[in-house]
Structure formats: structure tokens, C-alpha cells
Amino acid sequence: MARGVRQSRESVCGVALAGCTLMLSLAGCAQQSDLVKQEKELTAKITKLDQSIGETRAKFNQELTTLREEELPALRGNLDKGSNQFETMQRRLDDVENKSAARLNVIEKIQHDQANLLKSDRDRVQEDLAKLAETVGVLAKTVDAKLGSYDKTLEQLSRALANLSTKVEADGKLTSEHLAEVNKSVNSVAKALRTVGEAIETREAEQDRRLDEVAKAMHGMATQAGKVKEGKPAKTGKQAPHPDDSVDAGSAKGSGPTATGPSAAAGGAAADGEDKSYEQSLQAFKNGDYDGARKGFADFLQRHPDAKLASNAQYWLGECYYGIKDYGQAIEAFDRVQRSYPDSAKVPAALLKKGFAYVALNDRRRASSTLKQVVEAYPRSPEAMKAKEKLAQLQ
């Protein structure tokens, strides 16, 4: 390195001398004092340059020494380490190349085997296709032959269907005409049945009215007989009315026309009060005052729940609800007749009107079930006939 510095210094000096010579030759006519001054300045610069070169050389020598003593061994260690790593990587690369070559050989063998298998499969498939084509040809001929026979059969069936369709149309026309006549007959019968039903209802209402009058007369006779046996003169004039429309006055226990004594008189007085309340409510119903009749029957049932007319009052309470088209309450009232008074003569009528209420609510299933119960439980009753008529209408 010192040798290089020396060469650099000599080069600088040479350049400086060459410059001086050039300047002298160019300024040959310059004064000698200027030359001396320039020479001094040049000498100072050279000296300064020598100092700088010396410092640089010392610094360079120090760095070179540090490089030799510290960094160079580390670089050599790193170089050795890198060399070892390179050798390791080279060995690994060789191993990978060897393994790759082995795998490549295996792959080539597998590909070769697969190519042979594919070729054999292709040959076998071609043979199967040839056999299949031959079979299809035979089947096509067979199908063509059968289709020809099928076409003839279909043609015959078409002609038969056309004839059958013509016959069906003619039969349908005749059937429609017959059904129209049957419908007319059914409508006539239904109209007649409705007329008969209305007549029967009118007759039953008249019968109820007559039964009421008979019951009133019998009750009056019983009252008079009791007073006569007590030694009291019988009152003349209009007797107290008895509105019971289904129960015989003489059938109640302990209060028949032959009962005597003070208890019979007391029972008769209580019965008169009950009968009067019942009669007023029934008359309100007949007059079309359903709300007043409903309140009267409800009050009667609350005050006399065990009276002989209680079942009748419960039935007419349902009729009041039915009259104002409160069919839900009507069903509940009619149902209570059967639950609370199962032996009452009003049970069939209550069941019948319960079925009618279901019909009004368009609940055909429950209506049919209730009406069938009337027919099955009371087959000989007038209500059973009405139930059958309504069931026929529902079907």
C-alpha cells in the first residue's frame, strides 16, 4: 500500500513540475519575482499535499492492520462456513437429483403400464361396441317388426275408442236427461216434504196448545178437589192456567189430585206460583218477545231448579236463544236439557234443535252426529222423522 502512495506522490510531483515548466515556457517574459512567488506557493502546496498523503497513508495502514487482525479471520470463518453450507447443499441437491431420477423412472414405468392397460381396455371396448352394434341391429329389426303389429293394434283400438266415445256421448245425453227428470222429481218431493213438515209443525204447535189447555183444566180440577176435601167451597170462574206442555200434572210425586192435608195445600200454592211464572215466560215467547222470555225462563230455573217444569223451561230457554240466532248459547241450553234432565220428555226435541243449531252454524259434521243420535235413541218419536229429513238434506 505504501508503494502505491509513493507512486501517487511521484505522479503528483511530476504533474506539478510539468505544470511549472509549462507555466515558465508560457510566461517566459514574466518577471523573476513572480516566478519565485509562484514557486513558493507551489512548494507550500506540495508540502501540504505530502502531509495529507502521509495522514491518509497512516489511516490506511491502520485500517489495513485492523482488517488483517480482526475482519479477515471473521471473513475467512464465514467463507469456510459458507463453503461447508455449499457443500451440504450440493450433497442434498445430489440426493434430490438421485431421488428425482428414481421417482421419474417409477413414473415412467407407471405411465408405460397405464398406457398398456388403456390400450387393452380400448381394444376390449371396441370389441364390446362391435358386439353391441350387432345386437342393436338385431333388436332394431325385431322392434320394427313389433311396431308394425302395434300400429295395426293401435289403429284397431282407435276405431274401437271412437265407437265407444260415440256410445258414451249418447249414453251421457240420455243420463243427463234422466238426471234432469230425477232432479225435478226430487225437487217436487222435497217441496212436498217441506209442505208436510210445515203442516206437521203447525199440527204439533196446535197439539201443544191443546195439551196446555188440558193440563190447565186438570190442574184446576185437582185444586178444586183438594179444597173440597178440606171443607172449603170451590171457587167458580176462571181457573189458574197450567202451561206444562209435556208433563202430566198428576204424575208428580206427592202432589196428585188425591193428595190431602195441609202439605198438599202448601204444595199446590207453590205449584201455582211456579206455573204462573212459567206461563208468563212461555206467553212472552209465543208473542215474539224472545229477550223477555229468556230472562223469565232463566229466572224460573234459578228460583226453581228442581221443579217439574224445569226441563221444559230449560228447553224453551234454548228456543229463545235459537230465536235470536245466538246458536252457540242455544246449543249449550239444549245440551243442558239432556245433561240435567235425562228422563225428560223434552230431550228428543232438545237434541233435534241442537242439530238444527249446528246446521245454522254450518258445522255439518256435528249436525249429522246429533241428528243421528236422535234417530238412534228415539226412533219412534216425531223428532226422529224430522231428524231423518234434515239428514237427507245434508247428504
Quickly describe the structure.
The protein is mainly α and 395 residues long. Among the domains are: 2-23 and 33-101, no CATH class; 271-394, Tetratricopeptide repeat domain (Serine Threonine Protein Phosphatase 5, Tetratricopeptide repeat, Alpha Horseshoe). The chain contains 9 helices and no strands.
Question: Overview of this structure, please?
Answer:
It is a single chain. Helices cover 84% and strands 0% of the residues. It has helices at residues 2-26, 32-229, 262-286, 290-303, 310-323, 327-340, 347-360, 364-377, 382-394. The model is unreliable at 232-269 (pLDDT under 50). With 395 residues, the protein is mainly α. The two termini are 131 Å apart. Helix 1 (2-26) packs across helix 2 and helix 5 (310-323) runs antiparallel to helix 6 (327-340). Among the domains are: 2-23 and 33-101, no CATH class; 271-394, Tetratricopeptide repeat domain (Serine Threonine Protein Phosphatase 5, Tetratricopeptide repeat), CATH 1.25.40. The protein is elongated.
Instruction: Please state the average pLDDT score.
Output: 77
Please report the distance between the alpha carbons of the first and last residues.
131 Å
Per CATH, the class of one domain reads Mainly Alpha
**CATH homologous superfamily grouping of one domain:** Tetratricopeptide repeat domain
Query: What is the helix fraction of residues, given as a range?
Result: over 70%
CATH topology name of one domain, in short, is Serine Threonine Protein Phosphatase 5, Tetratricopeptide repeat
Number of strands: 0
Overall, the morphology is elongated
Query: What's the Cα radius of gyration?
Result: 68 Å
- Helices, by number, come to 9
Report the uncertain regions. 232-269
Quickly give the CATH architecture of one domain.
Alpha Horseshoe
